[in-house]
Task: inverse folding
């Protein structure tokens, strides 16, 4: 039962006990150190994420981006943070002080708490909860609350309008996200984050469930307010949305939590669909897992950044229609289809048994069948979309033609 | 472990507070919130009894899950009614909604 | 008497959150504050669920109550703005209500909790430390011999409630 002290990096508490410390105190110290580290990693790394984003966005727009502070401008965000901290902190008149001040903290917390269940390596995880995925979804929904609090307490119409938009969008896009998450959960047979990564040792879930991965990615774009769904704080219409009245470091917290959230969802994407820490030699040298995880989550993150600087913004009605008329039905049909096919595969005995789940070859039949199902479904979906689009276009043209005819017939008599 | 009666006391107190809110508040939304409090108290009771008396049998947790479902349905329909009353009568004070009173 | 341990501290923390939040809900004039207090109270309830080794219910409590119901309530408060400026907080029978609530609490303590309370230490402890897991809950909900029918009816109820809410709250006609 007693854990052995193999390596101080992997098991802190037993090592402290061997060093002659009281077991209770050692336990407490190791947990406290873990909490500190896990919550410090995102706070420190967000500086780098913002820098990466600014650099790439600048390159896309044919600029250089930050290049004055530190090598390649990498310390620019530290300078910005200093600026934000020494700025005057303004509380608008008529603001609800307590809620106004609590909102940025809750926004940041709702992101950082997600990192508590992120498996960094085979041995390093904040807490391997039984219900990891539900926990992530539940904590994510607290972020909505922070936005609502911020928008309401600032006593500003733009802020309230922005908050309404955000909450309507976030609550809607949670539906396809959760439904899409059901597919990897079915494949892994567990809700624990560590368990999901272990189930992908043989084959990543993105191969067996590409449609779920795409839906998860798109709804996460909307959840984090990234382009093309950034109408949440459409600068040109809403000034800045829910955080318009915030200044100084309180605004900084909102901004940082937004960037961090954007990276965190890509991290979740990497864990749930791209195999998390799994990679060569990771069981011999667990710390390699962090590297693999970072690379895997940076790929979708870079895609997000490029997407942000290249696509135009959608309207709110388009955003809602896209969610309720397209993403939700597709995700529900996808879940039903995958559940059905998976059951058939299991009945036929083609799915990998618990013993050889780590083996690549054992995973191939199941993954190929599911991939074929997904491709088929994708083709059908695209075809339906194409037909619907064509119908709409023809109707549009007919309408334009009719109005033109009416105009002509209205003009002709007057001319004669 | 913490004795069972402590959980029961907390749940009973929350339930009594909810009853007070339902009886004494005039605002329909406040009454709805008090009802949510009462449901939450019931849930604490259900889960506490499950944990202390039948931890192997899932009935306690399953019933708590059904209470969640009922609470969600109740909130959705209740708030829809409040909004539609507000539209027609410009008020959400329950005493103003007395159309059926002779 | 009670032996002092970390679990007890955590229990008292969550109990205070639950009770304080509940008091805030019924005594606060500002409905948005009331909704925030409701969230605090429900969050305390989620903490109690974790202590009772029901983590799934705790997560669902946060997801459903805080993520959905509380947001819905705040939305309703904002859509019906004038009600924040109410003439008075309580109706005329508020003191009768207070008496009823206190009596109810006393009755619950005397009749229901009292017997558990005065019983010997063992009766107030869990019968076993073997706790069913979330997996068991999932199996119970879809097992033909257990709760699959109530489960289906519950989902039907949710669908009906959703459609009903949309129909009632529609703006047109």
Result:
């Amino acid at each position: 039962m007693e854990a052995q002290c193999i390596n101080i990096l992997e098991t802190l508490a037993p090592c402290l006990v061997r060093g002659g410390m009281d077991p209770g105190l050692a336990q407490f110290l190791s947990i406290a150190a873990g909490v500190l580290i896990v919550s410090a990693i995102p706070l420190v790394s967000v500086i780098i994420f913002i820098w990466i984003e600014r650099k790439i966005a600048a390159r896309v727009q044919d600029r250089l981006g930050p290049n004055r502070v530190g090598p390649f401008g990498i310390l620019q965000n530290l300078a910005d943070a200093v600026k934000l901290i020494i700025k005057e902190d303004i509380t608008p008149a008529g603001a609800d002080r307590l809620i106004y001040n609590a909102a940025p903290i809750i926004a940041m917390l709702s992101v950082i708490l997600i990192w508590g269940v992120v498996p960094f390596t085979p041995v390093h995880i904040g807490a391997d909860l039984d219900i990891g995925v539900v926990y992530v979804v539940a904590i994510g929904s607290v972020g909505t609350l922070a936005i609502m609090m911020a928008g309401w307490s600032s006593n500003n119409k733009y802020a309230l309008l922005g908050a309404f938009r955000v909450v309507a969008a976030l609550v809607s896009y949670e539906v396809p996200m959760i439904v899409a998450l059901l597919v990897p959960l079915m494949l892994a047979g567990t809700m624990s984050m560590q368990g999901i990564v272990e189930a992908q040792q043989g084959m990543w879930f993105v191969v067996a469930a590409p449609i779920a991965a795409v839906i998860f990615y798109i709804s996460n774009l909307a959840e984090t307010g990234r382009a093309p769904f950034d109408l949440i704080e459409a600068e040109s219409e809403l000034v800045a949305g829910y955080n318009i009245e915030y200044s100084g470091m309180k605004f900084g917290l909102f901004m940082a939590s937004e960037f961090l959230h954007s990276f965190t969802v890509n991290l979740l994407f990497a864990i749930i669909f791209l195999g998390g820490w799994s990679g060569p030699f990771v069981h011999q040298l667990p710390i390699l897992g962090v590297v693999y995880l970072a690379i895997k989550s940076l790929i979708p993150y870079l895609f997000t950044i490029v997407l942000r600087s290249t696509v135009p913004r959608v309207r709110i009605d388009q955003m809602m229609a896209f969610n309720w008329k397209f993403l939700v039905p597709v995700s529900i049909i996808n879940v039903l289809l995958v559940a059905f096919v998976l059951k058939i595969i299991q009945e036929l005995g083609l799915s990998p048994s618990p013993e050889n789940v780590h083996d690549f070859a054992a995973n191939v039949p199941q993954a190929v069948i599911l991939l074929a199902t997904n491709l088929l479904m994708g083709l059908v979906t695209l075809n339906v979309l194409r037909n619907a689009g064509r119908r709409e276009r023809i109707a549009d043209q007919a309408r334009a033609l009719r109005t033109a005819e009416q105009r002509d017939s209205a003009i002709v008599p007057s001319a004669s | 472990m913490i004795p069972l009666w402590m959980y029961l006391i907390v749940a009973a107190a929350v339930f009594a507070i909810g009853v007070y809110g339902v009886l004494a508040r005039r605002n329909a939304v406040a009454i709805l919130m008090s009802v949510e409090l009462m449901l939450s108290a019931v849930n604490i009771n259900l889960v506490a009894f499950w944990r202390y008396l039948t931890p192997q049998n899932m009935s306690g947790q399953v019933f708590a899950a059904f209470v969640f479902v009922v609470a969600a349905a109740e909130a959705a329909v209740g708030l829809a009614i409040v909004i539609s009353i507000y539209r027609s009568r410009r008020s959400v004070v329950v005493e103003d909604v007395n159309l059926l009173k002779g | 008497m009670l032996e002092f341990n970390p679990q007890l501290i955590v229990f008292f923390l969550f109990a205070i959150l639950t009770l304080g939040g509940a008091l805030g809900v019924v005594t606060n004039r500002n409905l948005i504050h009331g909704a925030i207090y409701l969230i605090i109270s429900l969050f305390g309830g989620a903490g109690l669920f974790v202590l009772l080794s029901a983590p799934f219910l705790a997560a669902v409590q946060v997801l459903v109550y805080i993520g959905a119901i509380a947001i819905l309530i705040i939305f309703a408060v904002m859509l019906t703005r004038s009600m924040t400026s109410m003439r008075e907080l309580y109706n005329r029978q508020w003191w009768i209500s207070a008496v009823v609530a206190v009596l109810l609490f006393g009755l619950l303590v005397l009749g229901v909790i009292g017997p558990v309370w005065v019983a010997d230490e063992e009766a107030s402890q869990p019968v076993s430390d073997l706790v069913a897991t979330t997996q068991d809950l999932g199996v119970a909900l879809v097992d033909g011999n257990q709760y699959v029918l109530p489960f289906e009816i519950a989902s039907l109820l949710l669908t009906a409630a959703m459609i009903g809410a949309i129909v009632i709250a529609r703006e047109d006609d």
In short: The longest helix of chain C spans residues 55-79.
